[in-house]
Amino acid sequence: MRAVWYDRQGPAADVLRVGDLPDPEPAPGEVRVRLRFSGISPGDTKKRRGWLGSTMPYPRVIPHSDGAGVIDKVGDGVSRTRLGRRVWVYGAQSYRPSGTAAGFTTVPDELAVDLPDEVGDETGAELGIAGITAHRTVFADGPVTGATILVNGALGAVGSIAAQLAARAGARVITTVRRTADLPSVHGDAVALDGEDPAGAIRALAPGGVDRIVEVDFAGNADLDAAVVHNNSIIAAYATSDDRPGFPFWPMLFDNVTLRLFGSDDFSRTAKHAAAVELTAAARAGDLIIPIAPPFSLDQVAAAHDQVDHGNRSRVLLAL
Fold this sequence. Notes:
By secondary structure, this protein is α/β, with parallel strands linked by helices. Helices cover 28% and strands 25% of the residues.
């Protein structure tokens, strides 16, 4: 099969290799997926470049955890009725050496989720890391029907899905974007962080404060978050611009704020399964729209990684 791999960390153009590798065989309890698209997330590029001092977990890594394709082979213990099923894949390179940047990948059966006819392969390939993280930030503390949820970073991969899932579940959603110029790109109630008084603008929309915050930058938005919560609000943070963030401790303490931190690789199986079910249902119903850039070819993988690292409003795929 044609595949991308790296055996050392560094810049994309220096370490990513494209060539032929043996087709993988599914182990007991696994399925093999002939991939059509491979989704690239910031987590994939961080692993490749050794972010935060991470090292090579395996001698050779085929990157990317997300993808979509068709099951063409099953291991012992897996029903043959799965053969020929269109699926979306998550966790392919989570604590595993071989992800989706290849003609085939093998994953445990439960990580290959049936893809409805109404959902394209491109969308399926982008449901994994961002979608499961978004679902967890919204629902980790129970139902949100009638709640007011602030989603900081509504144009990002996680934030955009979180806002759509929360609205689908009956929440009142307020979103933020970095710049006033970005406001026309966001549906519903949105506030620009470069405005004169973003906290005041949010308070005008939610005078009693927000119930939950989905946070893309805990360090950068800590003061804003403290200004718009109420007693017993929850901040669900999945990223930060500062590895050791400072925050207004006493205001948050007096509001009895709960801070939750989310790392998607280590969510429980139950949480991942619940997310996969809801993401599939939302996409099937047309309640989940994911902007996707024109896919890159396998030979353009370095450029695709660079596009992810430089920031991109549309999701980035490899076409296989």
